[in-house]
Amino acid sequence: MSDADTRIASVVGENDVVLFMKGTPLFPQCGFSSRAVAILDHCGVQYESVDVLQDMEIRQGIKTYSEWPTIPQLYVKGEFVGGSDIMMEMFEAGELQQMLDDNKVAKIEG
């Protein structure tokens, strides 16, 4: 297992919801990452984000780790869910919210 794989596995294992994205939730650096953030924010759940633009090892490593070629990538309870298109389809069908509820993902306080 590479150093990048170890770091990815650690962040995925330690957080209920992880979004590997370009940029940050406050400043997404691509439209797909912006859409993914908007979906998660609308679902009202707590999530960890990883800015792949800050670490080239993670940027390449996440594609190998998930066997998925594009970013952003969403993980829920250690399971790879998909990219922004899959997130949007699941969100529109109510499946993403159901998955988050079924996994008892923490809601944002407020």
UniProtKB/TrEMBL annotation:
The keyword Ribosomal protein does not apply. PANTHER family: GLUTAREDOXIN FAMILY MEMBER, MONOTHIOL GLUTAREDOXIN-S14, CHLOROPLASTIC. [2Fe-2S] cluster binds at residue 30. InterPro entries: Glutaredoxin, GRX_PICOT-like, Monothiol_GRX, Monothiol_GRX-rel, Thioredoxin-like_sf. The keyword Transit peptide does not apply. This is Glutaredoxin. Keywords: 2Fe-2S, Iron, Iron-sulfur, Metal-binding, Redox-active center. Belongs to the glutaredoxin family. Monothiol subfamily. Residues 17-81 form the Glutaredoxin domain. One of its GO terms (molecular function) is metal ion binding. Pfam families: Glutaredoxin.
